[in-house]
Amino acid sequence: MRHNAKWKLKGKITSMLAVASLMAAGCRRMDSLAEPSSVGEAAVSYPDPGDEPVRIPDAVSDADQTQPPQIAPQNPETASTALAPNPQNAAMKDFERRVIELTNAERQKRGFSILTVNPHLLSNSRQWAGNMASRRSMYHSSMDFGGENVAWNQSGPEEVVKAWMNSPGHRANILRPGFKSIGVSMVSSNGPYWCQQFGW
């Protein structure tokens, strides 16, 4: 009798360990899944109450896209390129410059003027990306400038600009003819938090 009870108990323990092992494996698989990326709602403020949004032209096909010439940078931190003019020599990270270049390439393809790097917007966007990362939440700042795009979990400049261009409100900010200047940054916590700000 005792021998039979011992085998029953051993069988139950083995079953419980097997279930626990499967559950742990399932948790590991769930944790390893890539989180989806997302973009917030686009935000824009107009300089005058009577200003209206402008119509944004349709997307340009890949066949119509050409690579604009680039200027080799002198000082990597402050250099201007053809698509990231930096008249005030603001120090920039490579990924910040690249987002600006990609943004300006989208504008240039459609005949809009390119945006210049603005130190105030660069500093602002860095601070706001840091705020979002520290709170692990994507939302807009209280803007004292023209417009703002935010995003979360895109792996690099190409991916985040593509995400913004695929979202009507963010695309409208990128292609808004009245904007003259730009700043952008990214800070990581539970994924990269991106912030792009525009000035009139």
Description:
The protein is of the alpha+beta class and 200 residues long. Helix content is 40%, strand content 15%. Helix 2 packs parallel to helix 4 (157-165). The longest helix is centred in the N-terminal third of the chain and has 31 residues, at 2-32. Strands 1, 2, 3, 4, 5 and 6 form a six-stranded mixed β-sheet that branches. It has helices at 2-32, 94-109, 119-135, 157-165, 168-174; strands at residues 38-39, 43-44, 116-117, 147-152, 181-189, 191-199. It is globular.
Write the topology of this structure.
Layout: H1 2-32, E1 38-39, E2 43-44, H2 94-109, E3 116-117, H3 119-135, E4 147-152, H4 157-165, H5 168-174, E5 181-189, E6 191-199
Parallel strand pairs: 3-5
Antiparallel strand pairs: 1-4, 2-4, 4-6, 5-6
Average pLDDT rating? 75
- What would you call the shape? globular
Unreliable stretches (pLDDT < 50, length at least 5) are 12-34, 48-66
Count of DSSP H/I helices: 5
What value does the Rg take, in angstroms? 24 Å
Our estimate of the beta-strand percent is 15-25%
Helical content stands at 40-55%
